[in-house]
Structures are given as structure tokens and as C-alpha cells.
Design brief:
Number of domains: 1
Bound molecules: flavin mononucleotide
Radius of gyration: 15 Å
Number of strands: 6
Oligomer: single chain
Helix content: 25-40%
CATH architecture: 3-Layer(aba) Sandwich
Order of helices and strands: EHEHEEHHEHEH
CATH superfamily: Flavodoxin domain
């Protein structure tokens, strides 16, 4: 399978593509697209997913559409803000709509944005949750601390070493997807 046939879904633990996690996941998607992947960003501002368990959630049209898209997708980029030392509730709720039957055996690239100092808590917590979904997160990962200063006005990462890490993460996801589908 060539890169051109890999479909990648980007998910953010914040609403909107203009949030810092939205910007980061879209930066990853655009690198993947430049390398031939088909990319989709699910914007929760346009298509919110209900809270798991709330009235009417099980038959919600967005949930059905989301889970169908998961099934059609070979790989995922996830970017969550760190909230109180872990992933946002929005990211956890998004993951709670994923099941093994949708994402098991598929590749994940993990990213995190932080208002404060860089750490890997959120990345580690997402990695643990993915184990229950039988997802395959690649070892490469990216956390961006002091995220308010991380992007320029065009949405590009200011620090070239972070940009390089992002490109390495995307390459790792593409390579792993290719190996797993061979
Ligand atoms: C409820 C809440 C909790 C937060 N907790 C942390 C935290 O534990 N560590 C940290 O570095 N930043 C924390 N932040 C800052 C977010 O990580 C930061 O807002 C996020 O990465 C996205 O940036 P943006 O809001 O400019 O899009 C918190 C923000 C909120 C709203």
C-alpha cells in the first residue's frame, strides 16, 4: 500500500481548528497530505459529539458518522491540551466513542499542548487509554509547552526543533501504517 492510499483522521481535544491543539493536529495533517495521505479533520465545533451516557447519545447522528469515519480510517493524529495534568475531558469523551472494532490494530500519532512547562503526562495517559482500544501509538510523540508562543501568525511552529519532531512523528505514523497494512 502506498502513502497515497492511507487515510488519516485528525482529532483535537479542543473545539475548533484555531485552538492550539487544533492548529497542531492540522499542522500534522498538512505534512501528511503533502506526502500523499488523504486527511480529514473532525472539528467538534461543527459536529459536536454528545457526552457518553447523556440522553439520546446512543443514536446521535454525529456518533454514527464519527464511528463510520473511524472504520474507514487507517491512522489517527490526536492532540490534546493538558488540563489539570491530563488530557482534556473533550479528548477523553472523543476516545470514549471509539471501540476496538473501529480502531484496533491502527496507528496513532500523539501530541499535547500545554500552557506551562512541557511534560509527557497527557501523552502517557492517552497512550494508556489506547491500550484498551488495541491502538498502536508510535513511539515518537510531541508535547509543546508554553504553547501560546509556539505558533507564528501563519500557524507554523516557531521552533525549528519542534517542527522537526512533528515531521518525524508524521513520518513514523506513515511508515507504521504502511508496514501494518502490507
Ligand atoms: C481547565 C484547564 C486546565 C489546565 N491545566 C493545565 C495544566 O495542568 N498544565 C498546563 O501546562 N496547562 C494547563 N492549562 C492550559 C492549557 O494546557 C492550554 O490552554 C492549552 O494547551 C491550549 O491552549 P489554548 O487554550 O490557547 O488553545 C489548562 C487550561 C484549562 C482551561
Amino acid at each position: 500500500m502506498g502513502d497515497e492510499s492511507i487515510k488519516i483522521l485528525g482529532l483535537s481535544g479542543e473545539y475548533r481548528s484555531t485552538s492550539k491543539s487544533g492548529m497542531l493536529v492540522n499542522a500534522a495533517l498538512s505534512i501528511a497530505e503533502s506526502k500523499g495521505a488523504e486527511v480529514v479533520f473532525w472539528d467538534l465545533a461543527e459536529k459536536p459529539l454528545p457526552l457518553v451516557g447523556e440522553e439520546g447519545c446512543w443514536n446521535h447522528p454525529h456518533v454514527k458518522e464519527f464511528q463510520t469515519l473511524l472504520e474507514e480510517t487507517q491512522a489517527f493524529f490526536l492532540a490534546s491540551p493538558e488540563y489539570h495534568g491530563t488530557m482534556s475531558g473533550v479528548m477523553k469523551n472523543t476516545m470514549d466513542w471509539m471501540y476496538d472494532k473501529h480502531v484496533g490494530g491502527k496507528v496513532f500519532g500523539l501530541m499535547s499542548t500545554l500552557g506551562g512547562v512541557t511534560n509527557a503526562n497527557t501523552l502517557n495517559h492517552m497512550r494508556i487509554a489506547l491500550r484498551w482500544l488495541h491502538g498502536w501509538p508510535v513511539p515518537e510523540q510531541l508535547a509543546i509547552g508554553h504553547v501560546k508562543e509556539a505558533f507564528d501568525d501563519n500557524g507554523n511552529l516557531v521552533d525549528p526543533s519542534l517542527q522537526e519532531r512533528l515531521e518525524n512523528l508524521v513520518d513514523a505514523v506513515l511508515a507504521a501504517s504502511k508496514k501494518l497494512s502490507a
